[in-house]
Amino acid sequence: MALGEPMKAATHRLAGVASSYASVVRSRSYFPLWLAQLLSSFGDTLHYIALVVLVFDLTGRGLAVAALVAAEVVPVLLLGPIAGVIIDRFSRKGVLILADMLRAALTLSLVWPQGAWHAYLVAAGLAAGNTFFNPTVQAVIPALTSEEQRLAANSVAWSTGRLVQILASAFAGGLIAFTGTGAAFTLNAVTFLASAALVATLRIPAHAGQLGAATKRGLVTYLGDARDGFRYALRDTFVSRLLLVQALASLATGATSAMLVVLSQRHLGLPPSGFAWLIGAIGAGALLGPLIPNTLARDYRDARWLFVPYVVRGLGDVLLAVFTPLPVALLILFVYGLNTSTGIVVFNSTVQGAVREDVRGRVFTLLDVTWSAMRLLSLGLGGLLVDTAGIRAVFWLGGALLMLAGALGLALLGGHDFRQRQDDQADS
In angstroms, rounded to a whole number, what is the distance separating the alpha carbons of residues 18 and 26? Predict the structure, then answer.
């Protein structure tokens, strides 16, 4: 009897989560966007694998493949500020469709590759399109869902996206082996076009920034809007402190995420194929992670839901540097995946609800720029550290920094009210 009641309570909570997931998926206002994200995720996974294969085939150099990271990060740093202004000033539906059409054309061009420079150019172009598309999706979700649906919407998008990535990864190997990379690029272009068609069916109401943009003209006002967004981020208690925490977290995780394959071979002693087991453990955790806040959180807008996952993941990095048995590593990485996905869906849901509608695009792009800049710095420092002190030192230091980021977040934002304030709404 004592065990029966908790089981019934857990079953009831899971049934409630399933009901909330089904409700948001059936929503006519959100379903097209969710399906568009899934199609894009499937195509992007095919594209990434095909692009790596193509660049290696064209150059025969692993360093050339590594350079793709820089080609994908630099556009985020350069275009982030102006992308945020455009997202906040113009029709967000139009931004989504234009980004999809641009990415479709770029991807299709790789069916006839002209050389490695062509692959880098397309990688940079797709990253530029993502710089506009991804923050716009985050900015429009509050307009397509109710406050009660928001966590479920972000959770459904994240979990199903990870599942699609796993399926696409398995499909990509066979497709490329039998038909070459051209088929993968063609299919990715088709997914972008299908995404654009789905987005075209959305009813996204005009937002405050778009309505106010009608009276603004010229480059000076664009720069002014970018400055206003930056000023908002610095003055807003939540955003300014979150940027600081995110910068430290990105510095901590950039190197450890990229160098997991090095840890796999040099510390855990696994063959190259063993790296796939580690990625699989992370993926399994990432699939299930969003169930945690949906099942257990009475109110996810709490600093503990945002930052405790950082502490747990940081501890996991330290433990990975200590232990070598594969089952232990798989368990740690499963928990790692749980925490990462929990943090992401809570993070997106919290920012969507706490930031003013007219500056939401600029805030999301600023967060992306901060994360990408610190990720590049982390990769550089991690590369130096692994050559001088070894891979274990990278995970020791990365884990310690990530735990520090979580503790800093709890200290700076513990007890903060993450709901958008009425005076903020009035100002917009």
Answer: 12
**Token pair belonging to 29:** 């206002």
State whether the Cα torsion 112-116-122-126 is positive or negative. positive
Residue with the two structure tokens 């955003």: 239
Measure the CA–CA gap between 428 and 422, rounded to whole angstroms: 10
Distance CA 358, CA 360 (A): 6
**How buried is 250 (Cβ within 10 angstroms: 0-12 exposed, 13-18 middle, 19+ buried)?**
buried
Look up the pTM and report it. Answer: 0.82
Q: What are phi and psi of 146, to 5 degrees?
A: -85, 170
Burial category of 226 from C-beta neighbours within 10 Å (exposed 0-12, middle 13-18, buried 19 and up): buried
User: How far is Cα of residue 194 from the mean position of the Cα atoms in its chain?
Assistant: 21
Instruction: List domains and CATH numbers for the chain.
Output: 1-216 (1.20.1250.20), 221-428 (1.20.1250.20)
Main-chain phi, psi angles of 419, to 5 degrees: -80, 145
In degrees, rounded to 5, the angle at the alpha carbon of residue 269 between the alpha carbons of residues 265 and 273 is 60
Consecutive 10-residue averages of pLDDT for the chain (428 residues): 52 70 84 91 84 75 63 84 88 94 93 86 90 92 86 89 82 79 89 94 79 55 81 92 95 86 81 72 87 81 89 94 89 90 91 89 92 88 85 93 96 84 47
Output the CA–CA distances (angstroms, integers) from residue 280 to 170, 216, 270, 274, 320, in the order listed.
12, 49, 14, 10, 16
Tokens describing residue 112: 């006839």
Residue 215: Cβ within 10 Å count = 7
Amino acid at 292: I
